[in-house]
Fold:
Amino acid sequence: MKLAILGAGAVGRSVAELAGDYGHTVAALADSTAAAVESDGIDVAAALSRKDAGEAVGSKSPEDALDAEYDALVEATPTTLGDAEPGFGHVRAALERDRHVVLANKGPVAERYADVRALEADSEGTVRFEATVGGAIPVLSTIESYGPETVTAARGVLNGTANFILSRMAAEGLDYEHVLAEAQDLGVAEADPAFDVNGTDAALKCAILANVLGDREYSLDDAEVEGIADLPGTALELAAEDGRTVRLIGEATPDGVRVAPRLVPQNGTLAVSGTRNIVQLDTENAGRLNLSGRGAGGPETASAVLADVNLLE
Amino acid sequence: MSDDAERTDGSGMQAHTVRLELVDEPGELLRALEPIAANRGNLLSVFHERGSLTPRGHIPVEVDFECPPERFDVIVSALRDAGVNVIQSGAERYGEEVTVLLVGHLIETDLSGTLSRIQDDAGAAVEDVSLSATQGTDEVASARLRLAAETGRTGAVLDAVRDVAAEKDLRVVAPLDAEGSA
Structure:
């Protein structure tokens, strides 16, 4: 398939680098300022080395990438809240041209799910978004293959940064601020960690899960969200006295979407450590499924994007 | 006399479950069962979970027995008087346990008042409290509460705890398993 990749961050560039291995051609690669476009396939390595050298990724404008010859648009620009622009506009443009769309950007499906589905209904193209929930973990395709109507609830640890911080707090008896600084030094946490530690990122993923499972549309505004900032290390020590620990758990159930720090058994399934993610699905006929793996990272998330692309062939 | 009359026709007897924590020493189980028999409780089953330990390192034992309802509290008191740690008592009254963390200015906001409110408003028994206030009494502290709730009322107990906590600007870290989903 011919791909147009919008966004050249960790995920976008990994998709570009790996596309050839999966038998696909990159017809366009754009960052926020420029694009490389070539209908027979761009030279990915050259485009990325130009970007690494601080030059434009190519000689075209980002809009030219949207108009390029491609079968599927890979939307990997940063997630934005509210109207989910410019990601949503990119989805619209591709669907109006009857092209497929594969999202790594959570915004359009977390904030404007009904709009995306309406555009898809009028298009020959299909929208897939495996990479938006749990990185490399095949959560959405599992739900799809079981049948969303037979999955009664989904919950899990969906943010690696928050989980890393809680794991370290529990293991070392340290306070939040101390571990956050360490996580920032290690590159696990962003300079501005609010999106992760306030629960927003997990809530967006749960909104997507709820949209896929449910019969109504959810967005961040419909979620109850509580983060982990300011939890003292002593709270985790006390939890351990009782064989428990604290994890930031996101839930998508018929009652709605909720993210909050919760007590879970210390050696239980949900107490994954470090930056691992886990999603637990309650199913009507197959009991409980636990899917665990790497929830973030360039090549990991790109593998989910490319799995979607393969399903579109 | 009335006890005997009730027992003769088989009515008035009620099954109860008590959950005990025993030290792993010879004779402890017998010592724990004596107060039940001595107070005319009729033992139905004893589930002695050797091999699994409670968080305190003790052995959990579940005892089912029947007795007239008014005698139940007498038996639980007798167990406690005998030095047996009753962590959960009563099939009807307190069938479930729930652990929660509270975080905030626990001491400044009157911890014992908070606990009383939880007992009264939530209809739960506070069975165990651990407090950690390493930074002094006017700083943020954490507490772990183990609450006993009536069967099926865990969700309502947690709601009541959240209400009390909201009034006092405390954070609640609730268990996921209490709602059947861990």
Summary: Helices of chain B lie at 2-8, 28-38, 69-81, 111-122, 154-167. Chain B touches chain A through 23 residues (CB under 8 Å). Residues 1-10, 178-182 of chain B have pLDDT under 50 and may be disordered.
